[in-house]
Amino acid sequence: MTQDEIDRLWEDLGVFTRRLRTERGERGLSPTHIQALGHLNRSGPMTAKSLAQLERVTPQSIAKTIMALEEQRLVTRRSDPSDGRANLIDLTELGTSTHRDDRGHMTRWLTDAMDAECTDAERDLLLIAGRILRRLGHSTPPQSPSADPRTASKP
């Protein structure tokens, strides 16, 4: 791929991400909060450490997210029966319904947009692209030796 193609992909992803934020509107939750609710909805109760790993954020960052979700009564903490030192983070009924409502709103928008703007073949390509983007998001690409500052100056 050329640099221009990669730059264009970045721009395309940015345009789409901004549109998602616009469609979500003033619903009161950041994309980070929605993502955390989604993980809890799919996987069930988990420790903050596990949630941070899924989100690929620091423990400090996930602690802020959890605190904000607790303040809105969307999640609760309870002692982890398998590890008394840890807490399990779990969705409340309000958290479950908030996630469901947000997902429903966004699904309706995306379905309508795809129906209006895409051919059947383009819809199929978008679904394939989504799976590829998920795979890329979960991968850890190999780091080239020149990108590692510890080895960059070594002969």
Structure description:
It is a single chain. This protein is mainly alpha-helical and 155 residues long. 65% of the residues lie in helices and 11% in strands. The chain has 6 helices and 3 strands. A 3-stranded antiparallel sheet has the order 1-3-2. Strand 2 (75-80) and strand 3 (83-91) form a beta hairpin. Helix 2 packs across helix 5 (93-117). The protein is globular and about 50 Å long.
Low-confidence regions: 150-155
Element string (H = helix, E = strand) = HHEHHEEHH
The largest beta-sheet arranges its strands as: 1-3-2
Radius of gyration of CA atoms, rounded to a whole number: 19 Å
Whole-number count of domains: 1
Helix content: 55-70%
At the third CATH level, what is the topology name?
Answer: Arc Repressor Mutant, subunit A
Strand content: 5-15%
Defining key terms:
155 residues, mainly alpha, Arc Repressor Mutant, subunit A, 3-stranded antiparallel sheet, 6 helices, 3 strands, globular
Lay out the secondary structure:
Blueprint: H1 3-24, H2 31-43, E1 46-47, H3 48-55, H4 59-71, E2 75-80, E3 83-91, H5 93-117, H6 120-138
Antiparallel strand pairs: 1-3, 2-3
Helix pairs in contact: 2-5, 3-4
Provide a brief overview of the structure:
This protein is mostly helical.
